C-alpha cells in the first residue's frame, strides 16, 4: 500500500500498522503522530491499521524561548 509520511510517499506492506510505518520513518526520540489529521495515542500505534492513501504526520516538539 502507498501512504504519505510527512508528505513523502512511502510503500508499506498490506495490513501495515502505524508502528510499522514509524519503523520505516525512524522518527525523533520525542514525537506525536496523526493519521489523516487525527491524533493517535502512542499506546495505539501497534493496533492502528493503515489504509492505502493514508496521510501520516510525525510532529516533533519545538523548544525555545
Describe the 3D structure:
With 65 residues, the chain is an alpha+beta fold. The chain is built from 1 helix and 5 strands, in the order ββαβββ. Strands 2-1-5-3-4 form a 5-stranded mixed sheet, covered by helices on one side.
Distance between the termini: 41 Å
Largest beta-sheet characterization: 5 strands, mixed
Identify the strand order in the major beta sheet: 2-1-5-3-4
Could you tell me the number of beta strands?
5
SSE string: EEHEEE
CATH architecture: Roll
Say what the CATH topology is.
Answer: Ubiquitin-like (UB roll)
Number of domains: 1
**Mind telling me the CATH superfamily name?**
Beta-grasp domain
Count, helices: 1
Q: How large, in whole angstroms, is the Cα Rg?
A: 12 Å
* Poorly predicted segments: none
Helical fraction: 10-25%
Write the topology of this structure:
Elements: E1 2-5, E2 8-11, H1 18-25, E3 32-35, E4 38-40, E5 55-59
Parallel strand pairs: 1-5
Antiparallel strand pairs: 1-2, 3-4, 3-5
Features of the shown structure:
five-stranded mixed beta sheet, alpha+beta, 65 residues, globular, Ubiquitin-like (UB roll)
Quick structural gist:
12% of the residues lie in helices and 31% in strands. The chain is built from 1 helix and 5 strands. It has a 5-stranded mixed sheet, with helices on one face.
